[in-house]
Specification:
The complex is a heterodimer of chains A (236) and B (298).
Chain A: E1 5-14, E2 17-27, E3 32-36, H1 43-51, E4 58-63, E5 66-67, H2 73-79, E6 81-84, H3 96-101, H4 116-122, H5 124-128, H6 139-151, E7 157-161, H7 169-184, E8 188-193, H8 196-202, E9 205-210, E10 213-219, H9 220-225, H10 227-234
Parallel strand pairs in A: 3-8, 3-9, 6-7, 7-8
Antiparallel strand pairs in A: 1-2, 1-4, 4-5, 9-10
Chain B: H1 5-36, H2 43-61, H3 65-89, H4 99-121, E1 137-139, E2 144-146, H5 147-169, H6 171-181, H7 183-188, H8 193-215, H9 225-240, H10 245-265, H11 270-284
Helix pairs in contact in B: 1-5, 1-8, 1-9, 1-10, 2-3, 2-4, 2-8, 2-9, 3-8, 5-6, 9-10, 10-11
Classes of the chains: A alpha/beta (236), B mainly alpha (298).
Chain lengths: 236, 298
């Protein structure tokens, strides 16, 4: 089966400290794959390396069969990879609409295009604050905006880094629904999360990370039933 | 003398024309710093190149309107071409490096440009006349004032409004403001930030050169003219707040009035006055009048 994305034996270092030791994973079209693990195990770094923000020391990242490791992030964005960072990184001095506008990229063939009308329909709250500066939004609104902004680039694969972090339970539930809808709309997603319930509710498959390595790989069902892995790598 | 309305009007207009000429140059400096995060010491040298290019074009065309305005445009075009090469092949390699290297690089540019100017044009002092269409004076009721200097007074606000509209109302301006806030994120959203940097540096350098060309009839064109203007521009940008367009506008006005009236009132102390003002602003608002504290930028 053709993978949309396949990562093979990825090694990443920051200076002298090695963060990833040979990560391999793959995403098929329409799949939601999760990276789970405690803080600092390399989930964000894996996403940054896929996006082209942190160049890997070695290893390969293939997008639709083409090697993209070490390619600059703007090429990857145009090729259909959308990155939603964990710290949201809203352009604080730009209004909600301006945040969306600067992220606008043409749609790929055969996929319904995202524009501000569709984004506002998807996140009605954002339309109300259309002219408000990004820096003045609440945490939940910023999380919506950071996802909406990336959708404006019409990605085929969404890299979602900790979308539930720091949000109130009600908003987390809403976010879960929204991610489900995105998946139903045909988007492939890699989700990095610490919140196990969140992960199990959404994922097709899961990778458990520990100290920059993948220690478990399986379906959400298999992870749900594997209490040993949960206890060793996920519970605090 | 301060009770003489004609005299006062002339001093105010002198302040304004100086301020607005400096604003065109300083706003480009603040634009480059805001986006590229590079303190461009060579900005004054770019200004000097503009003045010399104008001098040469006027020299070959004769002192005509066509010659003058062609010279102003040529100053911008020549500088843009030089800046493009400098940014693409040299400066762009330093963006990921420490700030000290960037400072050394732009300082090296100053020395290189100064020597290149001396090699091409020599060390003599040149002067350029007002363009013939603006060589006269306008009757303002209270006094006559040189048309060309009035033109500078009007051009400054027009440039400010133009830049502001460009930054606020165009997609290009929005991308530029986003690059100022978080260049890595902008890249991850599909913008080739290296192109944005290149464009900003080229536009900023061209503005400095056009500012220099426009200043040429006001000042002496010589190989030392860059040093004076770069200090003024840094003061303007620091007073106004680094990266702020309106900050540099207000900063230019403050500097213009302090320079003109300071010379009248304090004479020997004029030069000190400007620095005292700058220190005063920095004590109260270290980030400048219109700037933002670094921590609140994100």
């Amino acid at each position: 089966m053709d993978d949309l994305l396949s990562v093979n034996d990825l090694h990443v270092s920051y200076g002298l400290s090695r963060i990833l030791h040979g990560i391999s994973l793959n995403v098929r079209r329409g799949e939601l794959v999760s990276l789970v693990g405690r803080n600092g195990v390399g989930k964000s770094t894996t996403m940054r390396a896929i996006m082209g923000l942190t160049p890997p020391r070695s290893g390969s990242v293939r997008w639709k069969g083409q090697e993209i490791a070490r390619r600059k992030s703007h090429f990857n964005a145009k090729a259909g990879i959308g990155y939603v960072p964990e710290d949201r990184r809203i352009f604080s001095g730009l209004s909600v609409w301006e945040n969306l506008d600067v992220a606008r990229l043409p749609a790929h063939d055969g996929i319904a295009a995202w524009d501000e009308a569709r984004v506002f329909e998807f996140f009605p709250d954002l339309e109300r604050f259309r002219d408000r500066k990004g820096g003045l939004l609440s945490g939940g609104q910023q999380q919506m905006l950071t996802i909406a902004r990336t959708l404006m680039g019409n990605p085929e694969l969404l890299l979602l880094d900790e979308p539930s972090e720091g949000l109130a339970p009600l908003i987390v539930a809403n976010m879960r629904e929204k991610i489900q809808e995105l998946k139903a709309a045909g988007l492939s997603i890699i989700l990095a999360e610490q919140n196990l319930d969140f992960v199990l509710a959404l994922s097709d498959r899961c990778y458990v990370l520990e100290k920059g390595e993948i220690v478990f790989e399986g379906t959400a069902e298999e992870l749900r039933n594997n209490t040993e892995v949960q206890d060793r790598y996920l519970h605090i | 003398m301060f009770t003489n309305p004609t005299f006062m009007a002339i001093q105010v207009l002198n302040s304004l024309s100086l301020a607005m000429n400096l604003f065109i140059i300083a706003s480009a400096l603040t634009l480059i710093f805001g986006v590229l995060r590079i303190v461009n010491f060579a900005h004054g040298a770019f200004y000097m190149i503009g003045a010399y290019v104008l001098y040469s074009v006027v020299g070959s065309f004769g002192e005509t309107d066509l010659g003058f305005w062609t010279g102003v445009i040529a100053a911008g075009v020549v500088m843009a071409a030089v800046a493009y090469v400098v940014e693409r092949f040299l400066l762009s390699r330093l963006y990921d490096k420490e700030h000290l290297l960037q400072l050394l690089f732009t300082f090296a540019l100053v020395l290189i440009i100064k020597d290149a100017v001396k090699m091409i044009w020599g060390s003599l002092q040149y002067s350029v006349s007002y363009p013939p269409m603006m060589s006269g004076a306008v009757n303002l009721g209270i006094t006559y004032y040189p048309t060309y200097l009035l033109f500078l007074c009007i051009l400054g606000p027009l440039v400010a409004i133009g830049l502001w509209l460009g930054l606020e109302k165009t997609r290009w301006g929005r991308i530029l403001r986003a690059a100022r806030l978080d260049r890595e994120m902008l890249g991850a959203l599909g913008t080739d930030v290296t192109k944005v940097f290149s464009a900003v540096f080229v536009i900023g350098a061209a503005m400095a050169a056009i500012g220099g060309a426009l200043a040429a009839p006001r000042v002496a064109v010589d190989p030392g003219m860059d040093a004076l203007v770069i200090i003024d521009c840094f003061i303007i940008v620091i007073i106004g707040g680094i990266g702020s367009l309106w900050g540099s506008f207000v900063g230019a006005l403050i500097l213009g009035f302090l320079t003109v009236f300071g010379t009248l009132i304090f004479r020997e102390w004029e030069i000190v006055l400007v620095y005292v003002m700058m220190i005063g602003v920095l004590l109260v608002r270290p980030w400048g009048l219109f700037g933002q504290p670094e921590a609140e930028r994100h």
